[in-house]
Amino acid sequence: MDVSRRRTLLKVIVLGDSGVGKTSLMNQYVYKKFNQQYKATIGADFITKELRIDDKMVTLQLWDTAGQERFQGLGSAFYRGADCCVLVYDVNILKTFESLNNWREEFLKQADPDDTNTLPFVVIGNKIDKDGGKKRMVSERRAREWCASKGNIPYFETSAKEDYNVDDAFLGVANTALAGE
Ligand code: GTP
Ligand code: MG
């Protein structure tokens, strides 16, 4: 079988503090829907999205996770085999940005990859629409500097609410995951 025509399944794990918009980003990307109401994710579940990149059909298996500690407790079997880990924070809440390193380390610990340098992370700064950006607590520059310091992690800014840059961010996720294949 022609390798280039084979369907590629990419496992993507989405991590980040509670309320940053992980579920909202996925729902906007896959279903083009946004819900103003907050409903905490419990445990982990995935949705899939098919996309075509060049001549390749790619299936993204997007795993949503719980930011709230009491709903966590995913074993390392869950993380293993991940092709990409998306770290999400809320640009309006500093603490969620400061948590990124913990999420990154949790993933590295659990997924236990052979080569941590090539592990494909993507960072998303979400909710850039909020209050017209006036109450923003983390500048794009600061976020990009952090990403650069962790091995040039690709960085995207999004609004799940306004559907701003969401497609581009997940295309970046797919490309990053493919690059590690
Ligand atoms: P957990 O499941 O607890 O980990 O939270 P989560 O990261 O999945 O957050 P969720 O997607 O549930 O969003 C939390 C709240 O933020 C909801 O009320 C959303 O409507 C809102 N929200 C998500 N994305 C955006 C955004 O881009 N802009 C604005 N203004 N609100 C957003
Ligand atoms: Mg959620």
UniProtKB/TrEMBL annotation:
Q: Tell me, what is one Gene Ontology molecular-function annotation carried by this entry?
A: GTPase activity
Q: How does it sit in the membrane?
A: Lipid-anchor
What Gene3D superfamilies does the record point to?
A: P-loop containing nucleotide triphosphate hydrolases
Question: In the UniProt record, does the keyword Ribonucleoprotein occur?
Answer: no
Identify the domain of life.
Eukaryota
Which InterPro entries does the record match to this protein? P-loop_NTPase, Small_GTP-bd, Small_GTPase
Q: Where in the cell is it found?
A: Endomembrane system
Q: Does the record's keyword annotation contain Cell membrane?
A: no
Q: In the UniProt record, which is one GO cellular component term?
A: endomembrane system
Which positions are tagged coiled coil? none
Q: Name one GO biological process term.
A: protein transport
What's in the keyword line of the UniProt record?
GTP-binding, Lipoprotein, Membrane, Methylation, Nucleotide-binding, Prenylation, Protein transport, Transport
Predominantly, its location class is membrane
Q: Record's Pfam families? A: Ras (PF00071)
Q: Which NCBIfam families match?
A: small_GTP
Please state which protein family the record places this protein in. Belongs to the small GTPase superfamily. Rab family.
Name of the protein in its database record: Ras-related protein Rab7
| Taxonomic source organism | Rubroshorea leprosula
Q: What is the lineage of its organism?
A: Eukaryota, Viridiplantae, Streptophyta, Embryophyta, Tracheophyta
